[in-house]
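Second attempt. The first submission of GTP cyclohydrolase 1 type 2 homolog had a stray character pasted in from the spreadsheet, which I only caught after the job came back as garbage. Lesson logged: always re-copy from the clean sequence file. Corrected sequence (252 aa) follows.
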Amino acid sequence: MAIALSTLVDEAERYLNSASINDYCPNGLQIEGRPQVRKIVSGVTASQALIDAAIEAEADVLLVHHGYFWKGENPCVTGMKQRRLKALLANDISLLAFHLPLDVHPEVGNNVQLAAQLGITVEGPLEPGNPRTVGLVGSLAEAQTAEEFAQRVKQVLGREPLLVAGPQMIRRVGWCTGGGQGYIDQAVAAGVDLYLTGEASEQTFHSARENAISFIAAGHHATERYGVQALGDYLARRFALEHQFIDCPNPI
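This time the job returned cleanly.
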């Protein structure tokens, strides 16, 4: 079955309520390809490797979390950017990208999807009353050591996380996928035992140690693989389309 590209885009934007979210990049259709869609390929970042894989998979739409045209970037279409755009346009593949709307969505969002993978029960936002905070807080069914929870993260995400182990058992968890290490202060204020995100900064270690909480950096890419898969599955079910998630490994 095929549907109009415009129908797919409209539904994705409606479902994610993307127009209401102020972001660092344009959300929605970033590059327009063929007008009919039969197959969606999804992935985390619209890298050349993912584009090449989408071409080989005969995708009509490439659906990603990290697309193009970020605020402050050089607008010139040269080098790496030219090669990526040329490949998509030459193969008539549309690029559909959602950044913050895919982080915060209550059903297919990166944060709720990661919680489901790790067995965390979502309780609410990391910082109540702040609409720009994308992280969440929740709890584990049973208390465990930081090392035990880090082992669970390793098993699920398939990579060794960076762990700063605090003194207490882990029951209450705060998290924000991707580059959310800057929210560790909000996590401390929320009274969590452990804060988990994708990346770490030099000062993150000191914040965790001096506030006596545990911290895990599990990888930007690794923590954000699940939202785009869930969105692709939703759109495929909604319109009876084919959907294939392609993971291009990234150690960061």
